[in-house]
Amino acid sequence: MRIKLGTKIGLTYLLIIFTVMLVFGYLIMHDIDQSFISERKNVLLGYANIIAERAAPYLPRQDAAYLNYLAEDFGESIGHRVLIFATDGTVLGDSSGLNQGQVLTVPVVASALQGESVSQTNYYPDFGRLLYLAVPVAAGKQIVGAIFISADINDIDRRLAQTRNRLFLAATGSAVVAFLLSLLLARIITVPVARLTRAATKMSAGDYGYQVKGSSRDELGQLAASFNEMSKKIQQEDKVRRQFIADASHELRSPVAALKVLVESLLLKPPESKEETLEFLTDINGQLDRLSKLVNDLLLLSKIEKNESSLKKEPVSIKQLLIEVKENLKPLAAAKQIEITITAGDNILWPVDRDMLYRAVYNLVDNAIKYSSAKSEVLLSSTANEENLTISVKDQGIGIAQEHLAKLFTRFYRVDKARERATGGIGLGLSIVQEIVNLHGGRVSVNSAPGCGTEFVISLPYN
Ligand SMILES: Nc1ncnc2c1ncn2[C@@H]1O[C@H](COP(=O)(O)OP(=O)(O)O)[C@@H](O)[C@H]1O
Ligand SMILES: [Mg+2]
Asked: Is beta strand 118-124 parallel, antiparallel or unpaired with respect to 128-139?
């Protein structure tokens, strides 16, 4: 069964209040009862002593007439039954007149005749509670009798019952108030929780960026703020992902469309000469190259995106790596008569994922060659200290205008779309470089001005 939070809190409060009231009620009632009785006892003790003083001269003589008058007189004025005993237990005075002249055995009186003032409460089904009190009567050092008072203390019980009722009312009243307050408290908690639940449901239904409104400054407010931030981030990432898919599809479409046109025109009118065939095949081959480069880059990007733990780090000779890049790009450089020069220490060993770093440097050098005019020079250099490795790729090429520098590492970003499509540029090279360097915990920066060449610097920490 699903019990609402408010009800749960309310019932808990009720239980707490009733338990506390029960325990405290019991203790308090007991204390009040005791203090009422002892107060009553003290009052009666005072009367008993006065009677004892008055009776003292008449007891040795056993003046029953006077003693009886004394008992009646006091009995009437204090409202309780008063008995005056001789030492042998004979009743010499009785305010009720019931036991006059009889010998009675009353335990408290026996004690009083031994010289002790005693009291005792007794319960009788017919009368309720009675308080018995007896004090000795002394003449000089001798005990000559005892005074006994029997007091009806049912009024104390009535007062206690009244207090108990009041306590019960107070407990019930505060329980009701606590219950209502806890419902309110639960609302304070459940309303924002419900808001968050609604927001989470919206998010899971694909409504990225959904924001929880009107949050407080407490823990729930913080939770809502974190939720909003997360929601915004997911929305942003979703946007980037969608854009990426759109761009990738767009880029895939152009070589496919070009291939389709080439093949269709071949089908429509088969080439007449061998040269024409060669020309067509060269075009088709070029488009296929572009397509395969694009697919490879996309695959590589999706692979890099995983996480740092996917890196296979090992100590790598950086100079060796630079030489390998140079060797593999030699044909491209040679075609433009570009000289690649390497300056790097022979014994720089750095923990990196070799294939990945190779890929990054390759992309930079590939760009340097692509965006340089013929007969220029590309400088590949590397330095290292305890903590940091830098690899710089510097060219004397066309350079990049200031306004493009910030966006350079964005996927599919190209400075001059038209021209770079002709050079086969897709715009993924630098974003791949950046992903690889970031995965290594490093940074890549660029320094360039139109006409003055460009320098890209990768810096990697040692770890
Ligand atoms: N060394 C460079 N000199 C001048 N421009 C460059 C250089 N490297 C990159 N760029 C510019 O940055 C853009 C993005 O580079 P990149 O991501 O490698 O894409 P691609 O080379 O496929 O066009 C290039 O299109 C080019 O305009
Ligand atoms: Mg490139």
From this structure: antiparallel
CATH code of the domain containing 358: 3.30.565.10
**Beta-sheet pairing, 377-384 with 339-344:** parallel
Residues 243 and 326 in one domain: no
Q: Does 255 contact ligand 1 (Cβ within 6 A)?
A: no
| Domain around 27 | 5-159
Considering the domain architecture, whether residues 120 and 42 belong to the same structural domain is answered as: yes
- Please check whether residues 34 and 152 belong to one and the same domain: yes
Would you say residue 361 lies in a domain?
A: yes
Say if residue 296 is in the same domain as residue 437: no
Nearest CA to ligand 1 atom 8: 367
**CB of residue 397 inside a 6 A radius of ligand 1:** yes
Mutate which of 298, 414, 419 to test ligand 1's pocket (most atoms within 8 Å of Cβ)? Answer: 414
Q: How many domains does the chain have?
A: 3
Return averaged pLDDT per consecutive 10 residues of the chain, 463 residues in all. 79 87 90 92 95 94 93 94 94 93 93 94 90 94 94 90 90 87 86 90 93 84 92 92 89 92 92 91 92 90 75 94 97 95 93 95 96 95 95 96 92 76 78 94 95 96 90
Whole-number Å distance between alpha carbons of 247 and 49: 112
In a domain, 9, yes or no: yes
**Do 148 and 75 form a contact (C-beta atoms < 8 A)?**
no
Q: Are residues 9 and 135 in the same domain?
A: yes
- CB count in 10 Å sphere of residue 428: 24
Counting beta carbons within 10 angstroms of the beta carbon of residue 74, is it exposed (0 to 12), middle (13 to 18) or buried (19 or more)? buried
**Which ligand has the minimum distance to the alpha carbon of residue 366?**
2
Q: Is 411 in the pocket of ligand 1 (CB under 6 A)?
A: no
Interval between CA 414 and ligand 1 midpoint (Å): 6
